[in-house]
Amino acid sequence: MEGKIKTGIQGIAGSFHEMAARKYFGEENLEVIECETFRKQFKALETFQCDQIVMAIENTLAGSILPNYALLENFGYHIVGETYLSIDHYLMALPGQKIRDMEAVWSHPMALLQCEDFLADYPNLVTVEKRDTASSAKEISDKQVKGVASIGPVGAAERYGLEIYASRIQTHKLNFTRFLVISREESDNPLANKASVVLQLADKPGALQHVLETFTLFEINLSKIQSIPIIGKPYSYSFHFDMEWALGTDWKSAMTEASKKLISLRVLGAYERGNRSDLVE
After folding, report:
1. Is the model's pTM score more than 0.90?
2. CA nearest neighbour of 246 among 273, 225, 224
3. In total, how many domains does the chain have?
């Protein structure tokens, strides 16, 4: 494992998180550190068990993962990259069976929900909610459970020696998740064309408008605005902005000017925008 990048993922090998990490870092450059929860990913980074973590932040169907925004704020580490992954679900089980002879299907509740049209054609498959997709496949493989299928990524079938009985069974084919790459150290990438920031607006009329006008002046595009409740301050919110710009834009000056109109502003990371061109069918 010498020379490989120790990367913490949420879940186990064969999960969508591992697939995203391998897409970003490459097959040969990665040593996966499995973490049970998103918080444990940050703790693994904090205790130097890994060099970076890859964490899901939003999905085109389910929306933003709000607790992960809070983790970004609370731990104070730095976003250094992003990658997008098509969330394709596969029906997998031990080899040599038939779907209509199976009795149950295991997976994460969201995966089961995303495949409900396919499952409607197989009333024999009783849905059983599990902790996640890859661990469902692993349990079937480890215990050699027959008559039960799992729904999850193709990587889980490959990892645990299961046969694929149906491919891309999700109801909505254009289903993508955005993953952030997070490090203890701040990146100084000269090719950075995107940043994620967290800010707190003044409680007065026009506060948001004045900030947006500043970004417009510097030709910065806001690709996402997400409000997060501030714990301990009822009805108070911080705002997470994702912003993009053309190379050569003086984005740092834009941050300086915007901060003059805010209670607080912190750049969570400046990085290269992830490639989404390969996600369109």
Report:
1. yes
2. 273
3. 3
